[in-house]
Amino acid sequence: MIPNTSQKSSDYSEIASYYRPGHADYTFDIKYGFRDYTGGGRSSGRETIGRVAAGAVAVKILKEMGIAINAYTKSIGPISIDMTRFDKGAIYRTPTCMPDEAADQAAMAYLKECMEKKDSCGGIIECIASGLPAGIGDPVFEKLDASLAKAIMSIGAVKAVEIGDGILVSQSVGSENNDAFRCADGIVSKKTNHSGGILGGISDGAQIILRAHIKPTPSIFSTQETVNQNKENIEITIKGRHDPVIVPRAVVVVEAMTALTILDACMLNMTARLDYLTNFYR
Q: What is the pLDDT of residues 182-239, one digit of tens each?
C-alpha cells in the first residue's frame, strides 16, 4: 500500500457534471456508465505508481545482467537539450529532468510564460537501454520494438513513440538509413544506429533508443468549451492544482516501462533455443 498524501478531492468537486476537454471523462462515462472524477481514476497519473515500483525491481535485475536503463527529458515545448552539454547527473538535479542545465533554465522560463497565459505544454522523453545483447525479441508477434511501443503508449499522456531515427526514416534514403556492420576482434557492431538497436523486432547489440511524445497537460486555467452530462453546451474554467507540464513526472514511468518490457523479453528469450534451457538446468 502506497498512501497518497497530496490528494484533495475538493479540487475536483466542480467537474462532476461535465466532461473536461483532453481528459477521458467522456469515454469512461460512455464505456462504463461511471467515471471517477476525484482525480482521474484509472486515467490518472497516480495509476503509474505500481508501474514505477515494479520497474525499480526490473532495473535492479537488469543491472545484474549488465543492462542499464536511463530516461530523461529531451524537450519541453520548443526547448530542446544540447547533447554536447549532456550531464547525466543533472537528470534528477534539475526540476525538468533535463541533462542540460542551460536547457533546463530556458524550459523553466518557457513554463512560466505558459502559466501566465493560463496554458500548458508537452514535450519529449528519451530513454536509452545500454548493454542489451543481440538476439533479444521475436520476429513477429513479440517484436521488441512493438512491445516497447505498446508499453510506452499505455502511459496515459503519451501520444506517439519513436525508436531510433523514428519518423525521420520516412524522409531518408536507404544508403543513409542503413547501419553498416563491422567486426573487430571477433565482435560484430554497427558504425551508426539509425535503427535504434532493433532490427526485425530483435535487438542488434547497439543501444536501444526510444522517444515518448507527451501531450500538454489537459487541465488548463483558461476558459474552454465543453458539454455537460445533460448534453448541454457550456463554458468552463478549471480550478485546483495542475502542472503546466507533466513531462518530468513521466520520465521515471517511461524508464520503468522500458525496464519491465526488456526484462520480459530477456526472460522469454530463455525459451528461444533448446540449448538455453539445457545449459540453464544442467
A: 999 999 999 999 999 999 999 999 999 999 999 999 988 899 999 998 999 999 988 8
Domain that holds residue 123: 48-281
Distance CA 45, CA 243 (A): 12
Enter the pTM of the model. 0.92
> Among 133, 88, 95, 125, which residue's Cα sits nearest to residue 111?
95
CATH number at residue 249: 3.60.150.10
Each residue's pLDDT tens digit, 22-43: 988 899 888 988 877 776 577 7
Query: What DSSP assignment string belongs to 104-121?
Result: HHHHHHHHHHHHHTT---
The H-assigned helical ranges of the chain are 25-32, 49-64, 101-116, 144-153, 174-177, 247-268, 274-281
Residue 258 to residues 30, 234, 245, 266, Cα–Cα distance (Å) = 31, 41, 22, 12
Closest to 206 (Cα-Cα) out of 50, 67, 70, 5: 67
Rounded Cα–Cα distance for residues 63 and 180 (Å): 29
Does 86 reside within a domain? yes
Short-list 280, 273, 278, CA closest to 138: 273
Contacts of 92 (CB under 8 A, 6+ apart): none
Total tally of structural domains belonging to the chain: 1
- Residue 9 in domain: no
- Pick the closest to residue 196 from 116, 103, 261, 130 (CA basis): 130
Residue 4 lies in a domain: no
29 assigned to some structural domain: no
Residue with cell 520476429: 139
